[in-house]
TrEMBL record:
Keywords: NAD, Oxidoreductase. The keyword Membrane does not apply. GO terms for molecular function: (S)-2-hydroxyglutarate dehydrogenase activity; D-lactate dehydrogenase (NAD+) activity; NAD binding; phosphoglycerate dehydrogenase activity. Residues 4-329 form the D-isomer specific 2-hydroxyacid dehydrogenase catalytic domain. This is D-lactate dehydrogenase. Belongs to the D-isomer specific 2-hydroxyacid dehydrogenase family.
Amino acid sequence: MKLLMFNTQPYEVETFAKIANDLKVEIDWTEEGLSLDNVDKTKDYDAITIQQHGNLEGEDLYKRLAENGIKQISLRSTGYEIIDLDLANKYNLKVTNVSGYSPRSVSELVLADTMALLRRLKDYSKREERNDFSWTGGQAREIHNLTVGVIGAGTIGSASARIFRALGARVLAYDPVQRTDLADTVEYVDVNRLLSESDVVTIHTPLTPEMDRFMNFDQFKKMKNDAIFINASRGGVVDTDALVAALEAGEIGAAGIDVFDGEAGITSVDLGDKGYDNDNLKALIAMDNVIVTPHIAFFTDIAVYNMALFSTRDAIKIVNGEEAIYPVN
């Protein structure tokens, strides 16, 4: 069996070689993203995997994949909003993701951001650059005295909940599905109560139509003025204009942002002197009470390996007429 991996990053190449050997398949790769311009590269392959930020748009792309004998699109990522599922269904393309790749990778970054923001590490670091070693305004709170609100208590959200609970925090959760295995970890509440009572709010939801711009200015106003907001899910679940406005107005105290609107062409790229055109991102990076990272919550050794492995396994299963482990449609 032959597979073609689109959007290959340098750190994935060694992983692909190991997986090809372990699963006894042939894997080729390209740095290009899948598009109508290169879709015919798939003619010589049984299956594909992708990892990209830009949408797969246009009916011709899905039609050509099917005509070329491709039966699936396996994402080496959790989010699948880049796929037009109606078109995928129309052309009998099974879509899979890797939702279980390593929940702790994301959760540990959420914890790291929370601790750094509580202890004002960015602010202290910038002060020291000015030879200011004073303590003014830096007295911190401790996690075990805080309430943490988790919006979306699925695989990753529940891992975040367990980490904060292990540190002694009270944990609230908002999710239409109430997991029995979290009974000793979280208290399920409505979103208004979660926002108003939490000292830290972390969001872990897919970018569905219901969650598009879910965190708007009205939502931020419900939060405590010294609360921390963390987003390591999808940029689109937050109205970034509203986030910047809420921070500037003191409606919330701080933010840790790993994903953001307009990140395609910015994250994972060294832009050097070229710079970038994203005023909200520039505003967030400039704030002492905001930590911005370039979509790296997933970026651990275990997660990178599992994302490639799980997507490849599901692609093979679909080609062999078996049920995928992580189906989307």
